[in-house]
Amino acid sequence: MLELEMPSVSGAGSGGPGLLLSLLHSRSQLLGRMSRELASCTGREEVYRCLGRVALPELGDWCDLDVLQDGVLQRAAAFRAPHGAVHGPPGGPPSLLARRVARSGHPELLQGPDEQVAVLLSSGEETLPRVRAAGPLDCMAVPLRLAGQLLGVLSFASREPELHLDEDALALAEDLAGCVALALETDRLRQELKRARHHAQRQAADFQTLLDVIPVGIGIAYDRECRYIHQNGWFARLHGLPLESNISLSAPDTELQPIRYLDGNGRALIPEELPMQRAAATGQEVLDVELDLEVHGQRRGTIVVSAVPLFDEEHRPRGSIGTIQDVTARKRATEAQRFLAESSVALSSSLDPEQTSRTLVELCVPALASVAAFCGWRPDGTLGMLMLTHADPTLQPLADEVARTFVIPEGHPIHEAMMTGRPRLIPVLEEASSWYAGGEAQRQGPCHGLGVHSVMLIPLAAPQGVAGVLVLGSTDRACTEEDFTFAQEYAAHATYAIDNARLYREARDAISLRDEFLSIAGHELRTPLTSLQLGLLHIVRESATPGDPARLSKWVAMCQRQGERVGRLVGCLLDVSRITAGRLPMVLEEMDLSALMEEVAARMGAELEKVGCPLVLKLQSPLRGRWDRSRLDQVLTNLLGNAMKYGQGRPIEVTTLATPEGVCVRIRDEGIGISPEDQARIFGRFERAVSERHYGGLGLGLWISRQIVTELGGHIRVESVQGQGSSFTVELPRWVEG
Length: 738
Known about the structure:
Elements: H1 16-39, H2 44-55, E1 62-69, E2 72-80, E3 85-86, H3 96-104, E4 108-110, H4 115-121, H5 128-134, E5 138-146, E6 149-158, H6 167-213, E7 217-221, E8 229-231, H7 233-239, E9 259-262, H8 275-282, E10 286-295, E11 298-311, E12 317-326, H9 328-347, H10 353-364, E13 371-377, E14 383-390, H11 396-405, H12 413-420, E15 424-426, H13 432-435, H14 440-444, E16 454-462, E17 465-474, H15 481-544, H16 549-581, E18 588-592, H17 593-603, H18 605-611, E19 615-619, E20 624-628, H19 629-646, E21 652-659, E22 662-669, H20 676-679, H21 692-695, H22 701-711, E23 715-721, E24 725-732
Parallel strand pairs: 19-21
Antiparallel strand pairs: 1-2, 1-6, 2-3, 4-5, 5-6, 7-8, 7-12, 9-10, 10-11, 11-12, 13-14, 13-17, 15-16, 16-17, 18-20, 21-22, 22-24, 23-24
Helix pairs in contact: 1-2, 1-6, 2-6, 9-15, 10-15, 15-16, 17-19, 19-22
Catalytic activity: ATP + protein L-histidine = ADP + protein N-phospho-L-histidine
Protein name: histidine kinase
Pfam family, one: HATPase_c
């Protein structure tokens, strides 16, 4: 056990200086051991255990350590000899001595035996009996202080007379307290550093997560020249480059990426003009710079870049941070609205169908496509390209040739879109030549040279049906769903213009047809009315004076014929009105078709004889069925009248016969015939295959006949060769349901 009672250095007696040196050596060893063991401690608990091992029993057999926690002195550890183990739970109240030293900041030494020692070592009345029973003799307490700041109090007590606490022990305790204070502060700093490091790691992880998920591009440069710019995941995806790529345009040649930034005029910016480089060089913010991003020669979108500088400790620029927003969709939406507004005005500027179709196609190039075509029905009944425009002016003559010669066959995607009205996106044509179905010559001909690789088919669906198909093709990229959606929106606007042009043309044609019809109707009515007036005038004259009765009968018969003719003309006009209104009345009855044909032939015998057309009847009788007698009479009269009008005095053959489906009537003449192109339209309203000046008529007979036959569930057709006559065939079911 270390003897702490030290004689004076100048004191008499043998061994004085040697004893002092021995004590100093032992004290130095104790402090050295304490320092070494504390240095290896990695936590507060290890510091406590080290204190117990080293301080006891050299400085007593009782030791308490109290520390300040949030300004309150609390028991941290207690040690008892002989082993220096931790005794009692931490957190208890400190002794009165420890509290007094903590308040004063000065060490205290109290030697006993004395009741006062027990009182000061207790924490209050409740612990005093237990302390008295322990029998402490001496006690001392020293503050734990570091850099003038109180950390706690270290208290010692001795119960053995041999272990006497004195001033030297107090000095040693103060030295130990300094070591413990340093160790506790070191541990505190270590813990703070650990917490700070953990906090920094969490912040870094949170920041990285933010960089990964934020829908904004981030670029960070840590050097003033911005030779290396880190990008976050969002920006990497926009670039289409690996995340670890150096996206700086100021990068070394070996690290440069195929990136360009273009201004509003399409000029590529040099590195020094870019926002991050400008912010790092000038130390000033660069805000809201709109640029077009191009990677590998392909446009990736429109971005808005803002950059702020990073500063060092002396407030000098040391790099920059840039934020990048993708405004492609917003810009495209703005441009789309402007384009739709401008295109609506342009499409509405003309009511001519051909000019509207041309404007429709021209507006699409290059705004929507590299190649644009408007497909529809041609006058010859084939489906083709009515208008075709190419973005490359040098290929326009070729495009015109394609529009003129390319006939769209059945089964072709354009034909399907025209028939179904369903839009279609073809991102990549698997085989370009197959798109131009129509023979090897067309596959290898002009169509193949247009270079279309991706196509959108947009039918223009009007209330009356599909007005046409807008074909938009790209020569350099695949059309996207976004392109497809916008093209359909444009087509919806265009449909109104196309339909308005169609309605205007139909109205104009209807007015022209009406004027022509009124002229013809006026002429047709004037002729019998003039004859009727002339006949009535002669009848009046013949009645006034006695004359030849036969002559009077002749004029009466002529008036009767002209009256019937006027009646037929008026009846046709009334039928047109009824058919148009959908109110053509039908009175069905059982009858014999062959007998009706004989009646019509007999009634028209005088007219046949007048024009010199022999009539040959080949009638299968009876041919009974259920039809409207008066309407069927009207059809047979119209057809036989046409045969007389155009028969040129040659024989007319009328045949009736039964068929597996019903009955058939065929009226054949050997007259002027009808050309193939006229055969498709002679059944139209007010249509005719010859001039009304030479043959007369309203152009309504065949149209009315077709409506009646259709209403009876049958069909009417014509077969004719010009110069060799015509054959009209009516097929009817036998029994028509009412």
